[in-house]
Amino acid sequence: MKFRVERDVLAEAVTWVARALPSNPPVPVLAGLLLEASPDGILRLSSFDYEVSARIEVAADVADPGTVLVSGRLLADISRSLPTWPVDVATDGSRVELTCGASRFTLLTMPVDDYPSLPAMPDAAGVIAGHDLTQAVSQVTVAASRDDTRPVLTGVQAQIDGEKLTLMATDRYRLAVRTLPWRPATPGMQATALVRARTLSEVSKALGAIGDVTVALPADGAGELIGFEAGGRRTTSLLMDGEYPQVLGLFPSEHLGSAEVSTSALAEAARRVSLVAGRHAAVRLRFGDGAIVLEAGQGEDAQASEAVEAALSGDEVVLAFNPQYLLEGLSGVAGEVTRLTFTQPTKPVVISSAGEHEATFRYLVLPVRLNS
Q: 10 Å Cβ neighbour count for 5?
């Protein structure tokens, strides 16, 4: 095998594929990165850990087609450190020589025959704008659980209903839901998929900036894989097992009070006030007199308070929140004005955008119970 490729092209491609390499591979070959140079001038780079696969195609000047498997981490480190010159790669027996300007590296190869075949992409289920996917995933994954004792809650549930895609995640203390439009391959299609939050976050960041993203799912809904593809990059992931809880019914059908407030002003005030909150302490929000007063700390400890102008309706009430949960909910609000709706101090509060974005993103969070 022998080919030449631009340094930046190689570095970006290797970095993309290497993200799927396992930290502790069960077998040595899974630490490898597969390079396939074809006669048509295409260089394919692949990685696979039996759960997530990644593949990218880039243009290269291929003098001698072939396939080779090398250490993925090492190749990633080398490619990022190379000078800005074209990179020549050639095999020499059981070694691969990489030359870039005055830099030269020799890597040992790994047995290609022992490397598992990458899974095939499922059928395309639809297309979604990359920016919308990236934003939606960032809004909901903050609410996914990190507790592996309930693995189903570490995932994001995706529900497809015709031209509407809904993503949701919960850790039992808060729930984030984002609904967005997409273009299904089959009109009126219905499907659900439970995807690991970490995988979905990485995919959306890597592919969202490229443009439209094709989402692939088994046509009969009985398969085990979900796939994503954009700009010559494709990745697959095993879907998670388990029944996701019926969380949409947790949103209250009515409320007794509400507040509309500047999103940035409330977030900045919450961030400042939370500086004096202890590790497990809450930030208190007092709704009344045309303002939300945020408070933290009490007794002989450090204390802080700040008032933010707000349009209020309903009775005055005091609510307390985990400051991280509050800030992560506000970070998902797309509009300049946040709407908070509530019933009782011990019942969930819904955070959303006021106005046209109100129905697309909703964040439900349980208040912290205050000592009477």
A: 22
pLDDT of residue 39: 96
Which domains are seen in the chain, by residue range?
A: 2-114 (3.10.150.10), 124-248 (3.10.150.10), 251-365 (3.10.150.10)
The DSSP result for 8-29, as a single string, is HHHHHHHHHHHTTS-SS-SSGG
Residue 55 DSSP SS3: strand
**Cβ contacts of 135 within 8 Å, gap of 6 or more:** 334
- Burial (CB count <10 Å: 0-12, 13-18, 19+), residue 78: buried
- pTM of this prediction? 0.90
Residue 293 structure tokens:
């007063």
DSSP 279: T
pLDDT tens by residue, 235-284: 999 999 999 999 999 998 888 899 999 999 999 999 999 999 877 789 99
DSSP 8-state class, residue 31: G
At 92, which amino acid appears? Answer: D
- 242 Cβ contact partners less than 8 Å away, ≥ 6 residues apart: 151, 152, 194
Distance CA 78, CA 43 (A): 18
- Degrees to nearest 5, angle at CA 296 with 292 and 301: 155
Neighbours of 241 (CB within 10 A): 10
Residues forming beta bridges with residue 194, ordered by sequence position = 157
Q: Supply φ then ψ for residue 283, to 5 degrees.
A: -100, 130
DSSP string of 282-346?
Answer: -EEEEEETTEEEEEE--TTS--EEEEEEEEEESS-EEEEE-HHHHHHHHHT--SSEEEEEESSTT
360 contact partners, CB below 8 Å, separation of at least 6: 178, 179, 180, 334, 353
Q: Cα–Cα distance between 44 and 15 in angstroms, integer?
A: 13
